[in-house]
Design goal:
The chain starts with 6 loop residues before the first strand and ends in a 9-residue tail after the last helix. With 337 residues, it is of the alpha/beta class. The protein contains 13 helices and twelve strands. The radius of gyration is 22 Å and the shape is globular. The structure holds flavin mononucleotide.
């Protein structure tokens, strides 16, 4: 590849803009190496989940209160008898990934409560993470909690973490903030170095036969990332932090749209789970081929050229296009027969 695909993300100089996002693929050294061999410029680890640690702590406290004692329980509950085992195995996997890969490894923390997370962030930094991604998968289900309180929780977490780690921090956000631009600016002012748009919330589904509510996990499709693309385009130039695109990026075209809107890197997950590491190579060579044909010399030059601030039709990112789009819809009555 002769074109310059380098991109700066979270202060890291990456060789290209294609980074596998958090997924089970980083649980295996073989898969992680295969992603690196296919050209990944960095990798985000699966998340260390707050619930898992809390469950372990609860279980351990329970076991220690039993008359049978901890040592006997240990024999039949080896995985859960040590309160630190979830954290320990995560730190161990981080160290192993760092040893076997040349590319930066971004650790991921999932949690919203302050307790422990700042300490966990410090341990991840010590174990060699090149950056931290906060996966803030939190559904604001309690009507008593205001949007302001919610935002404050995130900001306190960033501010506390910033106080103890010097490595770059990025926040994987949901699209469900009332004023996303304002919130991203606050994150930046509090010390975050980047945002990743958007976290995919897995929705519960209802089974009408069993009358149960069940979780459902569907992988994304190519083109599912238009909401993120819009926000990247709106935020580029208005905020100074790094931006990653995640969700619905399966092809070079999907990735290029995100970069043109303003992303610094593009994350792949579903595409890799579906097709394996070779899809990363395909996306990468597609980006390089497009850039070679384009009037641009480097990837840095294309980042954000179609952001709202630069496009000839800024209204396309906002409401104006809504009316135009609805008015332009042609009903095809012949298909009704
Ligand atoms: C099986 C699976 C596991 C995932 N695990 C994590 C995780 O541990 N932490 C996280 O932040 N995101 C996780 N994600 C979300 C992905 O990193 C990604 O943001 C999301 O799937 C949207 O990207 P995609 O359309 O390319 O799949 C997971 C997604 C899938 C499908």
């Amino acid at each position: 590849m002769s074109v310059d695909l380098r991109t700066r993300y979270l202060g890291l100089e990456l060789k290209n803009p294609v980074v596998p996002s958090a997924s089970p693929l980083s649980r295996s050294l073989d898969s992680a190496r295969a992603l690196e061999d296919a050209g990944a410029s960095a990798i985000v680890m699966y998340s260390l989940f707050e619930e898992e640690l809390n469950e372990q702590l609860k279980q351990s406290a329970f076991l220690q209160q039993q008359e049978v004692g901890y040592s006997e329980a240990e024999t039949f509950l080896p995985l859960h008898s040590d309160p630190g085992s979830g954290l320990d195995s995560y730190l161990e996997q981080l160290r192993r990934l760092k040893e076997s890969l040349q590319i930066p490894v971004i650790a991921s923390l999932n949690g919203i409560s302050l307790d422990g997370w700042v300490e966990n962030g410090r341990l991840l930094a010590e174990a060699g993470a090149d950056a931290l991604e906060l996966n803030t998968y939190y559904v604001a289900a309690d009507p008593a909690v205001s949007a302001d309180e919610m935002e404050q929780r995130y900001l306190s977490l960033i501010s506390e973490l910033r106080g103890v780690v010097s490595l770059p921090i990025t926040v994987k956000l949901s699209p469900f903030f009332s004023s996303l631009g304002n919130f991203v600016s606050k994150l930046e002012a509090t010390g975050a170095n980047g945002v990743s748009l958007f976290n995919r919330f897995y929705q519960p589904d209802i089974d009408i036969d069993s009358l149960r509510v069940a979780p459902s996990l569907h992988l994304s499709h190519s083109g599912d990332g238009l909401l993120a693309m819009r926000w990247l385009g709106l935020l580029r130039g208005r905020v100074g932090l790094s931006m990653a695109a995640t969700g619905g990026i399966h092809t070079a075209e999907d990735a290029l749209k995100m970069l043109l809107a303003g992303a610094d890197v593009t994350h792949l997950c579903s595409a890799l789970l579906l097709h394996g590491p070779k899809q990363l190579r395909t996306v990468l060579s597609g980006i390089a081929a497009w850039l070679e044909e384009s009037p641009y010399d480097s990837l840095e030059e294309i980042k954000g050229v179609l952001a709202q601030q630069h496009t000839r039709d800024p209204g396309a990112y906002e409401r104006a296009s809504y009316v135009r789009m609805l008015d332009s819809y042609k009903v095809n009555r012949t298909a009704w027969d």
